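Dear Dr. L.,

I hope this message finds you well. Following up on our conversation about the binding site, I have prepared a predicted three-dimensional model of the protein together with zinc ion. For your records, I am including the exact sequence and ligand specification that went into the calculation, followed by the structure tokens. Please feel free to forward this to your student if that is useful.
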Amino acid sequence: MRWQGGRTSGSVEDRRGLGPVGVGGMGVGGVVLALIGYFVFGISPDTTQQVLGGGATQEQHGQVGTPADEAGRFVDVVETSTTDVWSQIFQQEGKRYTPPAGVVLYDQATGTGCGLGQTAMGPFYCPNDQKVYLDLAFWQELETRFGAKGDFARAYVIAHEIGHHVQRLSGSMDQADQLGARGATSGSVRLELQADCYAGVWAAHASQASGGKIALEPGDIEEGMTAASSVGADAIQSQTQGRVVPDSFTHGSSAQRMRWFRTGYQSGDPGACDTFNASSL
Ligand SMILES: [Zn+2]
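The resulting structure of the complex is given below.
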């Protein structure tokens, strides 16, 4: 993937090097316990912290802008590219696209509008503060554990998270919540597959929307497919229900994820990403 000449917009909030945030002075052990409560028992983080005697999650504020290092700059370029693509698409539909409030880079653990964010959760989007959270250590995991190498696999992950932001704007997230409330477990799967499809839509338009500054190269789509098929990459916090759904249970099968990524890429049309009304996923 060629991206070096791509536009930046200073969309990154850099919390790297600030150190992991503690939860009310509990230290790392407490954080781990809080996370177990979060995932296994479905206890809201607030409740968990109260049980553990901690206070509120500490707030951290990093520098907002375009990071000087290449890895940080890459995140800004890709996020900015998704803004260019989705702005065009929304405009064609007579709507205005509001980009997310930023991509937060952090180490190990950080406070978010959805409770404590932690590396083990993988990249995720928090609908409450409209930010994407990413520990760049995940790229290593993407390569070694999931076998998804290369810039495009990383860009796919970012574009998938931005896809969740698009869903927040379009109302798909509420739709998934309603399905969940009716006891239909597939709401979050449909949400994930739609985000994969939206990542494909971004890939279809990235080059044109950047005036050729960003370009896919041979093998990139295969890279994206590998990433789509292998990554249970994000935990989503349901906005209205306020609960975290661990990834491994919520993402579709590898074949489904590749299929929807391909659908988005081949059509370039978010209208083709209607996983909520698709009779088969
Ligand atoms: Zn997702």
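In brief: Residues 160, 164, 192, 195, 234, 236 surround zinc ion (CB under 6 Å).

With kind regards,
A. P.
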